[in-house]
Design a protein that fits this description.
The complex is a heterodimer.
Chain A (H helix, E strand, L loop, with lengths): L1 E5 L2 E5 L1 E4 L2 E4 L1 H8 L2 E3 L2 E4 L2 E3 L12 E2 H8 L3 E4 L2 E4 L3 H9 L7 E3 L5 E3 L7 E7 L3
Parallel strand pairs in A: 1-10
Antiparallel strand pairs in A: 1-2, 3-4, 4-8, 5-6, 6-7, 9-10, 11-12
Chain B lengths: L3 H8 L4 E8 L4 H8 L1 H4 L4 H7 L3 H5 L8 E4 L3 H6 L6 E5 L5 E7 L18 H24 L9 H7 L5 H18 L3 H14 L4 H8 L13 H8 L17
Parallel strand pairs in B: 1-2
Antiparallel strand pairs in B: 3-4
Classes of the chains: A alpha+beta, B mainly alpha.
């Protein structure tokens, strides 16, 4: 099993690494990344990306490494874990729109809070660390 | 944190929400003691001086009732380009950034600290409190006047001040994500290696550097005042550790 870290998802899936490729069954791909193989391409939410022939193998698996590279997402592998990062262009566009990027994080009791829950109020977003 | 509660109680009825985000890979274990009342009573007075809080505010500190979120992968630092703590961002009712990440009222106090006695000269304490109070006054002004506040920056100025990420930043954040994964699975050596990769990619990120230095479970929750921290501060030369917030009006 391979642990895939994608956005804030952590999933253990069957994946076959082969050189620069990382082959996943379509259902494993969806579980690990949210991207679903559809007739029109790889889709998630409103977004669809036309799947290139070289992203598929004979067994119908999808090359997540090639797909992520197409999206501009860095991939770093170590042992049985593979982490994918954000696309630098998407992140830049998000931030430079000056609309505050949304996020969802737990509090001490494990309750999730999203920045967008606080629309309509002024928010003082304060970062700190115990160190 | 517990002093921000004082500001929160003053301003929340005027429409201010505070959201605190802790960049802490050890999660709850690292942050909970700093938020709980029992530990607040034991906070060293030295911290007040270091952070620029005056005696009145310090005396009234209380456990936060605003959301205190835990960010084990430093996600918010990546999204906003935050490089040290404490930094703050001001976000208006429409979700627009009106002040990008900047030191939240702190000035370069670590430079004035006696590293053996952890004491600060009186003049530095006064200077720190003045900067802090100016920052709080700016926050009050924004809460009262909104878009008409001189401290709510125009979009063009916000854009100019924002540090958009580059390839190094997103790669570093990916290493941190892996580092946190290995940390959570008890693989400390591997975890540390990824944090150190992140530091190499983003040498300006004090968050990654400070986190990396304090990753060992025996250090969790401790404030780093060790030789490795001071060596890193000294390596800054004349560069500030906490660049002061630029509160000058922008036209």
């Amino acid at each position: 099993m391979t642990t895939i870290l994608y956005d804030d998802r952590v999933s253990a899936v069957d994946a076959r690494a082969d050189g620069a490729h990382l082959w996943l069954e379509p259902d494993a791909l969806e579980r690990a990344t949210g991207w679903k193989l559809e007739p029109q391409g790889l889709c998630r939410g409103d977004a669809c990306v036309q799947a290139r022939a070289e992203w598929r193998d004979d067994a119908g698996r999808v090359d997540l490494a090639a797909f992520a590279a197409h999206l501009g997402q860095p991939m770093i592998a170590d042992d049985d874990a593979v982490a994918f990062g954000a696309s630098v262009n998407a992140l830049r566009e998000d931030l430079l729109s000056t609309i505050a990027p949304d996020f969802t994080l737990p509090d001490l009791d494990g309750n999730l809070h999203s920045l967008s829950d606080y629309r309509g109020k002024k928010v003082f977003l304060y970062s700190w660390g115990s160190y | 944190m517990p002093v921000w509660q004082v500001i929160y109680e003053e301003l929340r009825d005027q429409g201010l929400e505070i959201i605190a985000v802790a960049f802490d890979t050890a999660g709850r274990a690292a942050v909970e003691p700093k938020i709980r009342a029992t530990d607040i009573a034991e906070r060293p007075a030295m911290l007040a001086g270091l952070m620029g809080w005056d005696d009145t505010l310090w005396a009234r500190q209380a456990p936060p009732t605003y959301p205190c979120l835990i960010d084990e992968t430093h996600l918010v630092a990546e999204l906003y380009g935050m490089t040290n703590v404490p930094q703050a961002v001001w976000i208006d009712e429409q979700g627009r950034i009106v002040r990008p990440p900047e030191s939240a009222g702190t000035i370069d106090m670590v430079r004035h600290l006696n590293r053996e006695t952890l004491e600060l000269p009186d003049a530095a304490i006064a200077e720190g409190a003045e900067a802090r109070n100016a920052y709080i006054a700016a926050l009050r002004d924004w809460v009262r006047h909104g878009v008409d506040s001189r401290y709510a920056l125009p979009a063009a100025e916000v854009k100019r001040r924002l540090r958009g990420p580059g390839e190094a930043e997103v790669r570093a954040a990916t290493h941190v994500k892996l580092g946190r994964h290995f940390y959570a699975n008890g693989a400390l050596v591997q975890a540390k290696r990824h944090f150190d990769e992140a530091v190499t990619l983003c040498p300006d990120s004090w968050n990654y550097r400070r986190q990396s230095m304090m990753l060992d479970p025996e250090n969790v929750g401790q404030l780093n005042a060790g030789p490795d921290f001071w060596a890193a501060v000294d390596a800054l030369g004349d560069e500030p550790y906490y660049p002061p917030a630029d509160l000058a009006p922008v036209r």
